[in-house]
Amino acid sequence: MSNSSAPGKIDEVRKEVDRLYSKALSADELMRGITVLLNQHMLKYNWVGFYMLEAGANPPLLVLGHYQGAMTPHTHIGLHEGICGAAASSGKTVVVDDVKLDPRYLACSLETKSEIVVPVFVKGKVVGELDIDSHFLAAFAEEDRKLVEYCAELVGKRLEKA
What we know:
Number of helices: 4
Largest sheet: 6 strands, antiparallel
Order of helices and strands: HHEEEHEEEH
CATH topology: Beta-Lactamase
Oligomer: single chain
């Protein structure tokens, strides 16, 4: 059984993300819509949330914003903590096929098996990230990565317009 999402489903969800982008009146509304959409329509996306850098925090701190899924104890994450901190501090997408094998993983749920974290950029600077957990090992194929990066890119564009 393949762990990748069906290409037709990815295309369908991407069109819906475009619709959300065109109708959302704010970045906040867009982020809320993306979390709901991805959590409801992508079978293996069991927890979907945005962490945003808190303005003026010293040291820098990621703060949980809109999310869908189970409650998490990790509402504030330092830039050098966990997979989320790694993605934000490096400015690069991080895909972990098996969180048990990655010492950076901050356990949120015993059910989480894999994770993808994609930075959100505004004018070339990381301002936050889109974090997705899955109850399936190696849940995030290349198509999933492209979809999640596209979502993060649109949020960055909307934030630039704010």
